[in-house]
Backbone:
């Protein structure tokens, strides 16, 4: 066990060598517990991080656990007791990891869902629980987070895996064709219907139907979909024959469906019918140390497809990738890896220059010795400047929680009503700041 009193030196050692765990005791100059946890996850993906801070509130402890802290200690700690308690925790972690690996070997559906962050493990645990059920699932998350991969994992974890999953992108089909695409049609049902045609529901009989971007489905078709989900039967366009099906429906959306319900763009009864089991796919910027694991996974995948020897990735390259915010999420990382393998030519090692990422989207380390706002010689509008900062913080919290105001308020230790009132007030003032 190594004891280091300087945080910069401690993180430097943590980066250069593999440790079993990191115990960070606060107060720690220049760092908040959340900032240090994020940096430790970046430098040592998968290494348990324990936070010791007697000043933490219950809400702060819950937030650190959600962000991936292995444990949080608030009581006063004798230096002689800490190693024994930490070793007991690590033994528990080793046993849990052994069980995790054995379970992974027995669950092939997990192979496409790469990562060990708490957020991804929660998704995997949910899939394990619901795999063999027929319940409808709603997957929500930003574009590129891997919602279709989760849908395929749900299908492969079920007893329906012997048949292929049927997928429909509701936003990619013209509004006048989507009903025929889903439910099929008979000959002569409309101009161009020259023969009978099965719809996707029939094709997915005894299997899984994945409805991607369900928020883009026209309102009149939502009513018909609701009836099918409730009755498990429908009629082809132009036919009076009732067709019964056994279909498991998994839906996905990158939009806030509750907001669409509020705006009258999505049926409330359909929302609650598809949201039986909700799964939230976190953005890549909130997945701790998953970037190195995903990068290696994509390197192996692309090299295998291109029949190339597997490339290695330099430590400084991983450092750059881990600092990047990935606005396009996992899909953007996969595309970046594919481009890097093309750009590196015959070299065996991927260098930082092989990843032409915009520096503006790179997360900087906390700069606690410098002010966040500089006062110019000519002065500034104090109220407008503080308002912009407040609005930026609120919007960032809402992005982190996928628009969920209740979770955003918890993240900022505010009441939901306070957050809503602040947001409304600041948004009304925003046009004045721009003048």
Residues:
């Amino acid at each position: 066990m190594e004891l280091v009193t300087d945080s910069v030196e401690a993180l430097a050692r943590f980066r250069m060598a593999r440790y079993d765990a990191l115990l960070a005791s606060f107060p720690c100059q220049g760092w908040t517990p959340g900032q240090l946890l994020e940096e430790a996850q970046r430098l040592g993906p998968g290494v348990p991080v324990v936070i010791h801070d007697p000043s933490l509130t219950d809400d702060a402890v819950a937030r650190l656990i959600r962000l991936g802290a292995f444990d949080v200690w608030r009581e006063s700690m004798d230096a002689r007791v800490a190693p024994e308690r930490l070793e007991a925790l690590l033994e528990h972690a080793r046993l849990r990891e052994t069980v995790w690996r054995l379970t992974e070997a027995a669950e092939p559906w997990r192979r496409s869902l790469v990562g060990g962050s708490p957020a991804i493990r929660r998704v995997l645990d949910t899939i394990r629980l619901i795999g063999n059920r027929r319940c409808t699932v709603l997957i929500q998350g930003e574009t590129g987070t891997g919602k279709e991969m989760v849908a395929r994992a749900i299908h492969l974890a079920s007893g329906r895996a012997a048949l292929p999953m049927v997928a429909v992108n509701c936003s990619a089909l013209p509004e006048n064709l989507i009903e025929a695409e889903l439910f099929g049609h008979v000959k002569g049902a409309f101009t161009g219907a020259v023969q009978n045609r099965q719809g996707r529901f029939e094709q997915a009989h005894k299997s899984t139907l994945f409805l991607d971007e369900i928020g883009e489905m026209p309102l009149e078709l939502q009513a018909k979909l609701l009836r099918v989900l409730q009755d498990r039967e429908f009629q082809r366009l132009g036919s009076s024959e009732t067709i019964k099906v056994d279909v498991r429906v998994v839906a996905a959306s990158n939009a806030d469906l509750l907001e669409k319900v509020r705006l009258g763009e999505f049926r409330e009864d359909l929302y609650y019918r598809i949201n039986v089991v909700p799964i939230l796919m976190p953005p890549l910027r909130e997945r701790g140390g998953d970037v190195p694991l995903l990068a290696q996974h994509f390197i192996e995948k692309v090299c295998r497809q291109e029949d190339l020897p597997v490339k290695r990735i330099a430590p400084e390259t991983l450092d750059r990738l881990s600092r990047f915010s990935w606005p396009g999420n996992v899909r953007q990382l996969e595309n970046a890896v594919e481009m890097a393998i093309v750009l590196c030519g015959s070299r065996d090692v991927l260098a930082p220059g092989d990843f032409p990422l915009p520096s503006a989207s790179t997360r900087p380390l906390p700069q606690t010795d410098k002010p966040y706002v500089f006062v110019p010689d000519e002065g500034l509008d104090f109220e407008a400047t503080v308002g912009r900062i407040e609005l930026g913080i609120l919007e960032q919290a809402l992005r982190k929680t996928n628009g969920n105001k209740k979770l955003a308020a918890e993240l900022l230790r505010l009441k939901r009503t306070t957050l809503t009132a602040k947001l409304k007030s600041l948004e009304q003032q925003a046009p004045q700041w721009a003048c």
User: Anything to note?
Assistant: The longest strand covers residues 248-253.
